[in-house]
Design goal:
By secondary structure, this protein is α+β, with helices and mostly antiparallel strands. It has a single domain (about 10-205), classed as NADH Oxidase (3-Layer(aba) Sandwich), CATH 3.40.109. It is about 40% helix and about 15% strand. The protein has helices at about 10-15, 25-40, 60-70, 85-95, 95-125, 145-155, 155-160, 205; strands at about 45-50, 75-80, 130, 165, 170, 175-185. The strands form two sheets. The chain has a four-stranded antiparallel β-sheet with strand order 1-2-6-3. β4 (about 165) and β5 form a beta hairpin. It is globular. The two termini are about 25 Å apart. It binds iron/sulfur cluster. Iron/sulfur cluster binds near residues 199 and 206.
């Protein structure tokens, strides 16, 4: 698949925790350099399959049922930047932590941009249909263990070299698995975030000041 030509700098700065800050020339130069280096090594790959709903293999918990309500099919997808992005970040972590943090943020932006390109391809392949946003294992009450089901159904290890470890973390790390619902009828805009999450009162992420991404 084609690479994004530029990475979204505003988004990268947001990941770095600095939305609204004025960047110094030095910081701009570091981001430019990391962007160049990252874009020269990443090799995005993806897989998509369309499944008819209900698809019991991927239905676990209340949040995904709500998310896919009204959809008659769903697109399961996985995408990765490839192993070189992880390698670049790991090398920088040993010698230059500031560079590692910038590379990590830019790689997060890059995989999101790759996923948006996939969204556009799915929309183009299904003209006149309505697509929900992507919902990933680990969002809300959707078990992270479902990574295994996604990877197996998508034949991801063999087709794009994407696997997981015992903690269900994807390898390479800068990768995504997700499902988006498809419907021939307009679907109400899905709400996202803690307010509509089944786990809002018991969430371990929130207890630690973090967020699952939903
Ligand atoms: S961070 Fe928010 S959306 Fe995610 S699991 Fe926790 S309560 Fe739900």
């Amino acid at each position: 698949m084609t690479l994004p030509e530029k990475l979204d700098r505003g988004e990268a700065i947001r990941y770095l925790g600095g939305a609204g800050i004025e960047l110094t020339d030095e910081m701009n130069a570091l981001i430019d350099d990391c962007e160049r280096e990252l874009l020269s090594v990443i090799a995005p790959k993806y897989r998509c399959i369309t499944v008819a709903l209900p698809c019991e293999e991927i239905m676990r918990g209340e949040d995904i049922r709500r998310h896919l309500e009204g959809c008659d099919r769903a697109v399961m997808l996985c995408a990765t930047l490839g192993a070189q992005a992880d390698r670049l970040i790991r090398i920088a972590q040993v010698s230059d932590m500031a560079r590692a943090v910038v590379l990590d943020s830019l790689a997060s932006v890059a995989i999101e941009q790759v996923c948006r390109m996939i969204d556009e391809m799915i929309a183009a392949e299904n003209p006149g249909e309505y697509l929900t946003f992507r919902f990933s294992p680990g969002y809300g009450d959707y078990p992270i263990e479902l990574q295994k089901t996604f990877l197996t159904m998508l034949d991801a290890p063999r087709r794009i070299g994407l696997s997981m470890n015992e903690s269900c973390l994807l390898i390479p790390a800068k990768s995504v698995t997700a499902v988006a619902g498809l419907s021939k009828e307009p679907i109400p805009k899905r709400k996202r975030g803690c307010a509509v999450c089944s786990l809002k009162n018991t969430c371990r992420y929130r207890r630690n000041g973090e967020h699952c991404g939903f």
